[in-house]
Amino acid sequence: MAEVNNIYLSWTDVNKLISAMMPRLETYTYDLVLAITRGGIVPGAIIAERLGIKQVLVASVDFYEDKEHDLDLPVFMQFPADSFLRSRQVLIVDDIWDRGREVVNVTERVRQAGGRPFSVVLHYKSHRSAFPDKAPDFYGEETKDWIIYPWEVERGKVGT
């Protein structure tokens, strides 16, 4: 089994990842950014600023474990009304795709509302994904390591 390292990113590292993704992101036009709390808020704001997108919304999703049916059911704690998403190109932003549950469920909810979702994450862990047939539309880097973002270090959140 490959060793998993703790990788501490600096703000410069985050900036480089986002800058590297910008040419691909700029090939599409988006009506709004939908940042997944909490990890997607910082990169969502940076990407929205760089793309000139003024409308930034938030999605908060948690999961209810149904042990009887071996399911993790999404519970949307906060989500924009369908009318904000219908017929709109929506860029869904999160920091990392680990198992992929958040991005996949938010993407599906946007699609059900009549929106056209695109997803972007800074890091993609394909080896851990619970959705082998899905992937983010854009990602900065594929990794097997444990990523610690600068906004997590500053809060003293490392290891939680």
Count of helix runs: 5
Structural class of the secondary elements?
A: alpha/beta
Mean pLDDT: 92
- State the order of secondary-structure elements, H for helix, E for strand: EHEHEEHEHEEEH
Q: How many E strands?
A: 8
* Helix content, binned percent: 25-40%
**How much of the polypeptide forms β-strand, as a percent range?**
25-35%
Q: The biggest beta sheet, please?
A: 6 strands, mixed
Query: Biggest sheet, strands in spatial order?
Result: 4-3-2-5-6-7
What kind of assembly state do the chains in view correspond to?
A: single chain
Q: What is the radius of gyration? A: 16 Å
Residue windows where pLDDT falls under 50 for at least 5 positions:
none
The CA-CA distance between the termini, in Å, is: 23 Å
Tell me the overall shape.
Answer: globular
Which properties best describe this structure?
alpha/beta, 160 residues
Entry summary:
The chain is of the alpha/beta class and 160 residues long. It is built from 5 helices and 8 strands; from the N terminus they run E-H-E-H-E-E-H-E-H-E-E-E-H. Strands 4-3-2-5-6-7 form a 6-stranded mixed β-sheet. A two-stranded parallel sheet has the order 1-8.
